[in-house]
Amino acid sequence: METKWLEDFVSLAETRSFSRSAQLRHVTQPAFSRRIQALEAWAGIDLVDRSSYPTRLTPAGETFHAQALEILGSLASARNMMRSYQAAGLDMIEFAAPHTLAFTFFPHWLMDLRQRFGNIKSRLTGLNVHDAVLRLTEGGCDLLIAYHHPSQPLQLSTDRYEMLSLGSETLSAYAKPDADGQPLFRLPGHERVPCLSYASGAYMARLVELILKQAPVPAQLEPIYVTDMAEGLKSMALEGHGLAFLPASSVHKELELCRLVPAAPAGSFEVTMDVRIYRERPEFVRHPKPGVQALWDFLRRG
Questions:
Q1: 268, 173: one domain
Q2: In terms of domains, do 34 and 156 share one?
Q3: Whole-number Cα distances in Å, 279 to 137, 146, 168, 298
Q4: What SUPFAM superfamilies does this protein map onto (predicted)?
Q5: Which of 67, 88, 109 is the endpoint of a domain?
Q6: By the 8 A CB rule, do 15 and 24 touch?
Q7: pLDDT, tens digit (0-9, with 9 covering 90-100), for 150-184
Q8: Mean pLDDT taken over the chain
Q9: Which of 88, 122, 156 is the last residue of a domain?
Q10: Rounded distance between C-alpha atoms, residue 195 and residue 223, angstroms
Q11: Among 275, 277, 274, 273, which residue's Cα sits nearest to residue 162?
Q12: How many domains in the chain?
């Protein structure tokens, strides 16, 4: 099916005349008629009632007319969008980040950045860690913000990608407090503690495994709930379902309001991660953006 067939059909619906539409479409009437027939063959049903004069659409044709108008409108919008994409996209910085950083770190970091660097146009895509890395390597974003820990390095070639450190983040255990402000659940614990867990294979799940492996005292944890996202674990912890290992930036407000409290002694059952920003080295970038380079230079200067 060709787009011009739809345009022919819409013209015929408006003029109700094969000859007039053929003239408007700058084709001969036989050629115009063949196009309408080709469209009907594609649709598998008669769209035009040729027994009447002036020409009118069949019931199926009336339905198809509305669809044709919508399709042509969508195509026109898509074309206009693509034509303006390059010009509009040059000043739009595309970020990708894991969900946790997208919810917690990114909003505060961007506000601070705007105060120091100036206004920037940005688009953020929140993904799991694996897909966020893929977004960068497949050219779907300009910059990737992600956690880094030596035990769980991202699989990015230093020959092709470079990084800067934006700070650090601590992953620790938290729980809802009781009436006295003490955690309802605590580590290491003498009985099995209900634990709100990350899905197996998730980046955070592997870091929690590291925390438990390095703990001086074995923790007696009973996984009772599993999800991929830290925000989901935090919501469950706030309701008192169990303890959860959460990034400090995700519980800042909850700690201030005493809605959550640390569930382990200070300095234990925790791990510190870097927060890093990555980009493809300029010599490999197919469509460089001046704004991305300016931002990178600013961040490099610290």
A1: yes
A2: no
A3: 9, 11, 19, 14
A4: Periplasmic binding protein-like II, Winged helix' DNA-binding domain
A5: 88
A6: yes
A7: 998 888 899 999 999 999 999 999 999 999 999 99
A8: 91
A9: 88
A10: 5
A11: 277
A12: 3
